[in-house]
Amino acid sequence: MNASLKRAVSAIVLTVAAISLAGCSLLESVVTGVPEGEQDVFTLKVGDCFNIPDENATEVGSLPVVDCAEPHDQEAFAATDMEGDVFPGDAAVTEALNTFCSGDVYTQFIGIPYQDSIYYTSGLTPTAGSWETGDRELLCTVLAEEGKTTGSLAGINQ
Fold this sequence. Notes:
single chain
């Protein structure tokens, strides 16, 4: 979308939002293509907590982000970017995610090493398609095997 078209869409969104605040999130979902109550995965950041609507999905475009004080499936706790111009393949991306997320960043966040913890790590990675658009981010998440957690797991020491 070129800059003038983005500005035009933004102006329309702002005008409509000023007229009817109740319809703002619905209008945003129509304009951005992100379902109401969800957030685009490219805008997720460290500290966000979210739910996984379909645990069998291999690719997602958006996720329901919730306040970490509410029950949630995963919490983003670290991020890094991969290097390179050519997509290294799904296996290499997964290996890089696992190595990074279960290392020092995990220990710093949880308070004990991954191998001693009761929690698991997962994350979001670039796909071959998103790599072509410049996506290199590995976003680490932490989760409990038994289900949802409530509150941040930062410093939990378990």
